[in-house]
Amino acid sequence: MAQVPQRFFDALAVRTWCGLALRALGGAREEIDAINVYPVADGDTGTNMYLTVESAAAAVEAVFAAHAMGADADTGDGAGGPTTAEAAEAMAHGALIGARGNSGTILAQLLRGMAQVLTAGPESAPAGGPELRRALRRAADSARQAVAHPVEGTVLTVASAAADAADAAGDGCGEVARAAYAGAREALAGTPERLPVLARAGVVDAGGRGLVAVLGALVQTLTGEPPDPGRGPVPAFVAPARAADAPPGAGGCACDDGAGAGPAFEVTYLLEAGDEAVARLRGRLDALGDSLVVVGGDGLWNVHVHVDDAGAAVEAGVEAGRPHRIRITHFGAGQGHAAGTERPARERAQRAVVAVVPGEGLAGLYMGAGATAVLARPGEPPASGELVQAVRLAHAREVVLLPNDDELRHTAAAAAEQARAEGVRVALIPTRSAVQGIAALAVHEPERRFDEDVVAMTSAAGATRHAEVTVAEHRSWTSAGICQAGDVLGLVDGDVAVIGTDVAQVAATVLDRMLAAGGELVTLVLGAGAPPTVAPYLEARVRDSYLAVDTVTYQGGHQGSLLLIGVE
Predict the structure, then answer these.
(1) Of 44, 180, 468, 488, which one's alpha carbon is 20 to 30 angstroms from that of 190?
(2) Which helix (H) or strand (E) holds 37?
(3) What is the mean predicted confidence (pLDDT) over 398-414?
(4) What does the pLDDT average to over 217-240?
(5) What per-residue confidence (pLDDT) applies to 247?
(6) How far does Cα 528 stand from its chain's mean position?
(7) Can you tell me the distance from the alpha carbon of 499 to that of 460, in angstroms, rounded to the nearest whole number?
(8) Alpha-carbon gap, residue 409 to 401, rounded angstroms
(9) Is 271 helix (H, G, I), strand (E, B) or coil?
(10) Max alpha carbon distance in the chain (Å)?
(11) C-alpha 551: how far from its chain's center?
């Protein structure tokens, strides 16, 4: 069915554009992932841009649905709908909260820049060509400002070229969209000339390729026809340059990462903070790592950075405001920053471990052991889609999934089924605590047969009793009696066993009960709110009272509980 063209950029056009952009990125996702070589060759640019637009489209659909329900309630029909400003604002907000990776974060800022212009006019007035021109210019400028160290030959170059071309177009929305698309496409073809690593790999910039797809959807929205049907496919692969022919100068995806292997972790989170706090945060994160992109405003920001110290990047966010939806991704072998290197092959690993962890300290521990960690903040459990994405990022034929939370068993099972449908062999080990996951990871041997490895990991997890010490948030009935808000609770295997007022004493009572049944190793994971004397006290208690029992202590960070305890 032919697309009905939109003469103006109104709410319906925003909705149509999001849907067509999502379809375009879905069709090009694998190709874009395949050409993702810089700053990290982790093959997820297309996926990240798709997920970002998916979140934007869902937000727009929610606004339309809310208006439809309101109209039905007030008038008995479905008349009325959101204004251009409401739809554009929903699109920008959805992209902001759903942005993934470097490319998705920049795309979210591009959409936010456009929305700033589209929401500035009269509330009910649709945007024409002149407004669309200004929106594209604001998008390009604001995205460039969001990147700590902009580099040419990236999606920023493509966005600027689109805005430049739109400035020279006529006043019709369709004319502006066609010009922007043509300018972006021409700039995309030239990205290898401006970025040496692209020339050596024989590809165009992956983020720029994704933006061209999004602008192509804009053309189709406003003209009713696919863009440039007679000009052939959008360029993706080009003739690779010999080392001697590579253009001079440093390169980057959207930020200058310098030379060398680069940081080990990608850290992203949403942040509730004021402008001044975010300005300080930019300086702090810029000193910690690279690929820094901070987008958003009005109290809500999306932060993206590559660092070696993931905990420090999260702590900087805590100092600036309230971070949530924290994601920490370890760049595995073959996924280093590609400054001056040949494009690494994207061969699948044979086996990987994907684990949900409750704190950034444990995330670093798990990733240091080679696992892909999904950080779950207190009260913000990951959705099955996040676990599926983590399995994809692990890029392995076989994956062991550790939910580390009894309440996540159904979510993890749904993610495992989805991953299996995509051709990945997945084994779900029903770990109920992160300390059980640590025990499973300790016996993980990727060289042995998959079934044998899963059995050994399952056995180690099952042999580990788990407990936690936390603070009651309100008065309630428990299996150990009535607790009051502020009481210290000791839970053993998920049930409240001890109620007290002193953290160290409650922890000691819990530990004694667990060791009464025997044990050889005690694992302590300290939360950020635990008193500093707790660990030495418990370590001394085990050393003095239980012969041949070893103790190992880890810093868990902001994990919700004051203390996690494992006995195996």
Answers:
(1) 44
(2) none
(3) 90
(4) 77
(5) 46
(6) 23
(7) 29
(8) 10
(9) strand
(10) 84
(11) 34
Query: What value does the mean pLDDT take over residues 140-148?
Result: 94
- Mean pLDDT across the stretch 28-56? 83
Q: Please report which helix (H) or strand (E) contains residue 193, including its range.
A: helix 191-194
CB burial string 243-263: b at 16+ within 10 A, e below: eeebeeeebbbbbbbeeeebb
The contacts of residue 93 (CB under 8 Å, 6+ apart) are: 59
Token pair for 322: 């309230």
- What tokens were used for 367? 């990733």
Q: Which of 111-115, 474-478, 560-564 has the highest mean pLDDT?
A: 111-115
Mean pLDDT of 34-42: 75
Cβ 174 vs Cβ 226: under 8 Å: no
> Among candidates 158, 210, 213, which has minimal Cα distance to 187?
158
Contact 26, 213 (CB under 8 A): no
Q: What is the pTM of this model?
A: 0.63
Instruction: Give the Å distances, CA to CA, from 258 to 151, 281, 307, 310.
Output: 11, 21, 13, 19
- Say if CB 304 and CB 291 are below 8 A apart: yes
| Cα end-to-end distance, the chain, whole Å | 63
User: Which regions of 376-530 does DSSP assign to beta strands (E)?
Assistant: 396-402, 425-428, 465-471, 476-478, 481-483, 488-492, 495-500, 521-527
Residues 107 and 140: their CA atoms lie apart, in Å, by 10
pLDDT at 256 over 80: no
Q: In this predicted model, what pLDDT tens digit does every residue of 319-339 receive, in sequence order?
A: 999 888 787 777 654 454 444
Q: How far apart are CA 499 and CA 472, in angstroms?
A: 9
Mean pLDDT of 221-246: 68
Q: Residue 119 is encoded by which pair of tokens?
A: 């929401």
| Paired tokens of 392 | 């994809």
- pLDDT tens sequence across 67-102: 887 655 444 444 468 899 999 999 999 999 889 888
Taking Cα atoms as reference points, which of 121, 127, 122, 116 lies closest to residue 91? Answer: 116
Query: In what order do the strands lie in the sheet containing 465-471?
Result: 495-500, 488-492, 465-471, 563-567, 521-527, 550-557
Reduced to 3 states (helix: H, G, I; strand: E, B; else coil), residue 340 is coil
Q: Which residues contact 44 (CB under 8 A, 6 or more apart)?
A: 33, 36, 100, 101, 392, 393
The set of residues, in sequence order, having a beta carbon less than 8 Å from that of 512 and lying 6+ positions away, is none
Q: Which of 422, 358, 420, 354 is nearest to 390 (CA)?
A: 354
What the block records as the tokens of 504 is 């160290």
* Phi-psi map region of 325: left, alpha, beta (phi>0 left; psi -120 to 50 alpha): left
- Chain segment 500-524, per-residue pLDDT in tens: 999 999 999 999 999 988 889 999 9
